[in-house]
TrEMBL record:
The protein's name in its UniProt record: Ras-related protein Rab-23
Pfam short name (any one): Ras
Alphabetical list of Gene3D superfamilies matching this protein: P-loop containing nucleotide triphosphate hydrolases
Biological classification of the source: Eukaryota, Metazoa, Chordata, Craniata, Vertebrata
UniProt keywords, alphabetically: Cell membrane, Cytoplasm, Cytoplasmic vesicle, Developmental protein, Endosome, GTP-binding, Hydrolase, Lipoprotein, Magnesium, Membrane, Metal-binding, Methylation, Nucleotide-binding, Phosphoprotein, Prenylation, Protein transport, Transport
GO cellular component, one term: endosome membrane
Amino acid sequence: MLEEDMEVAIKVVVVGNGAVGKSSMIQRYCKGIFTKDYKKTIGVDFLERQLLVNDEDVRLMLWDTAGQEEFDAITKAYYRGAQACVLVFSTTDRESFEAIGSWWEKVEIEVGDIPTVLVQNKIDLLDDTHGRMDHEEAEGLAKKLKLRFYRTSVKEDLNVNEVFKYLADKYLQRLKRQTAEEPEVVHTTSNKIGVFNTTSSNLSSQNSSNGREVISLRPNKQRTKKSKNPFGSCSLL
């Protein structure tokens, strides 16, 4: 284990066109529920879930982002600090598949190379002749982007858990490599989130040009205290 009685916090952004099932996927994973009624996400939403991966306590913080262009300025700001990403398109929406490259680029510009998966959702609707996706075409895109590819059905709860477990495992592998190579520098500057240790060893002050004291915080390896609930939990912000 990386550090006794501590848990790793991972920020995951879920991106893709509107109505591909991003919100439903997060709701299914965190709350175990599914609703067929579509409600457009305004800006961003947030849920979290705790899990155990290879004896490591992990808190996944899942950011559900809007898929409409009018929210780009808002959602881009929330990509920053992400450590993993889910790119989602719908089996019944050809346009959402063709937009994946654009979504991938937007995330990469903000956070660089992070563990990412490509997800084809709504495979329970493969027989829908209006939106049938070619299996080889989708797999070809995954190979081109060098991403792990999953076919999911949020409605049937198929492969949803596998998507997030894979991302958590990939991030932990990366974190352990970074820890081994640079014990004092666990995360890159672009991949920090707001979990800080405010002990004296992590707190420093300096005088700014206007004479005011400026407090600088250094991240505490992005961990939070482990929950005592052995069954995990989800919460809505």
